[in-house]
Here is the input.
Amino acid sequence: MIKLLWIDDNLDHDLTEKRMALYMEDDIDPHFARDATEAYLRLREEHFDVVIVDLRLPPGPDDMWNEHRENGIQKFGYVLLSYVLSQIRNDFRHLSDTHFGVFTIEAQEENPELFLAPISLPEQNFKMKTHAYYENAFVDFIRNVHKSWQ
Here is the structure.
């Protein structure tokens, strides 16, 4: 069973069909977070096999994001990934075998920093959201992220 945390602020709108499709899969245990604060708190306390992150997340209510807000940062998903993966040997060591992926509206070329330390995302773990990206392809993406992170 793949315990999944999908972090995206559009889970109840544009992504409803993909979210519902996850409940139909026998090998996926889906969990969700809608902003960076909710995701951070879940990641601090729980282990997940796969974490899928939208880069353009709202920060949520916590003050920990204030410095980034003041600097005009829009990609709180990127900030969250950077923080968690830079602390993987400390506060987030329980996630050391977690597989991370990105599912976002932006093109891969717009985010070269994802493929460098501390994130070091494998290129195959990045998917761009498009209207033509169907539910079964999204479920396959999750399974492939689960297999590919080394």
